[in-house]
């Protein structure tokens, strides 16, 4: 787990630049932590501000570079604009159009690659040959520490908290939040959630290494590749895993929109969707991690 003081230091850095997102109560002892209301519509700005602000000025001035299925790219673009430096984001060519448009609208340059090419770019650390300073979207320790600021808020906002349900892609959010909440309240259980259309971590951790898997989910935000360093961190911080079916995930997006007036993307609705698979009783927080859903997809789901 990441050191609590490191998370607190990151929180001091990022607090002037982000929103302290609300926690709202739902039935059956459930709290919803609404990171869909965060700057750029997702939690990612926490980590990217922490990483960028921790850089020496000369490295930051070179510009920022990241790789992302969408939300990390938008976060990096936003941070770069706020700090007055250029930005490029290597993205999947299947990334939702609103996320690609969001990167461009913030003055950054998206570089679109097919999934296999993008995975090769990551596997070969191709960022080392680029002129900008690279911020890894989930493995960078400052990014993880920045995400941990969410956990600090959550413990203050939900004093009776016993469980935290976290959507997991690359793992930076889960590790950061778990490090914070477990340091402050060691008895808290952290539950990781993925979709049945991309159950990377439960399968990879069970297998003891990487597995072949092609994403088939509307939760594009969780389709990060396997990373051995993150596997060890997740093994140490996530207590158990829940898988959510695509059918249940679509229903959860609709339920959040209709019942709570909350717009969540696929990855953002995973933790809420997983709650019905848990025993009721312990006070539980579900992190609604993002709200950047393609309007046509949302309309289609609401029409079902």
Question: How many strand elements?
Answer: 10
The biggest beta sheet reads:
6 strands, mixed
Mean pLDDT: 96
- Helix/strand class: alpha/beta
> How is the largest sheet built, in terms of strand order?
1-2-10-7-8-9
The fraction of residues in strands falls at: 15-25%
Radius of gyration: 18 Å
SSE sequence, one letter per element: HEEHHEHEHEHEHEHEHHEHHEH
What does the secondary structure layout of this molecule look like, with pairings?
Blueprint: H1 4-14, E1 23-26, E2 30-34, H2 44-54, H3 57-60, E3 64-68, H4 71-83, E4 87-92, H5 97-105, E5 109-113, H6 115-123, E6 133-134, H7 141-157, E7 163-167, H8 172-184, E8 189-195, H9 200-207, H10 228-237, E9 240-244, H11 246-260, H12 266-274, E10 284-288, H13 295-302
Parallel strand pairs: 2-10, 3-4, 3-6, 4-5, 7-8, 7-10, 8-9
Antiparallel strand pairs: 1-2
Outline the structure in words.
By secondary structure, the chain is α/β, with parallel strands linked by helices. It has 2 domains: 4-43 and 140-302, 3-Layer(aba) Sandwich (Rossmann fold), CATH 3.40.50; 46-134, Rossmann fold (3-Layer(aba) Sandwich), CATH 3.40.50.1100. 45% of the residues lie in helices and 16% in strands. It is built from 13 helices and 10 strands. It has helices at 4-14, 44-54, 57-60, 71-83, 97-105, 115-123, 141-157, 172-184, 200-207, 228-237, 246-260, 266-274, 295-302; strands at 23-26, 30-34, 64-68, 87-92, 109-113, 133-134, 163-167, 189-195, 240-244, 284-288. The strands form 2 sheets. It has a 6-stranded mixed sheet with strand order 1-2-10-7-8-9, sandwiched between helices. Helix 8 links the parallel strand 7 (163-167) and strand 8 (189-195). The N and C termini lie far apart (42 Å). 52% of the residues are buried. The mean pLDDT is 96.
